[in-house]
Design goal:
The protein has about 130 residues and is mainly α. The protein has four helices and two strands; from the N terminus they run H-H-E-H-H-E. About 65% of the residues lie in helices and about 5% in strands. Helix 3 runs antiparallel to helix 4. The longest helix has about 30 residues. The chain is elongated.
Length: about 130
């Protein structure tokens, strides 16, 4: 009576090219595990942890200038917020009186954050590569 295996029917074939060195490494690993190449490949795929590697362009003068300018603006807004906080602490002024100033400063910070992200994105780009 023929043996019956409890494995799924596999009909898709995957091929890949390797250098001689890669193939030697691959076959040594397969041999070490004591399984066939296809089973080794399936196990590697099942257990693989893929970590993205983000590739960016080198920092250029345009990016440094934009980040420097935006950082200076951020410092100014931060200073404004510190003045508002000091005034509230020293004079006990009601929050409602300075509400619009605080909200404007917070909005400026949010705008600045997105401007920085946009400038960096424009200068660097969204290039991504992935490594297994």
């Amino acid at each position: 009576m023929p043996k019956k295996y409890n494995t799924p029917k596999r009909s898709v074939v995957v091929k890949t090219r390797m250098t001689d060195d890669e193939y030697v490494d691959f076959t040594e690993r397969v041999k070490f595990c004591g399984i066939i190449q296809s089973e080794f490949t399936r196990r590697v795929i099942d257990d693989a942890v893929i970590k993205p590697i983000i590739t960016v362009s080198p920092i250029n003068e345009k990016l440094l200038s934009a980040v420097g300018s935006l950082t200076a603006q951020l410092g100014k807004v931060g200073g404004d917020l510190n003045q508002i906080a000091r005034y509230l602490n020293e004079h006990g002024a009601p929050y409602n009186k300075l509400y619009s100033d605080v909200r404007a400063a917070i909005a400026d910070l949010a705008d600045l954050k997105f401007e920085i992200l946009r400038k960096v994105g424009d200068a660097v780009g969204d290039v991504q590569t992935f490594k297994l």
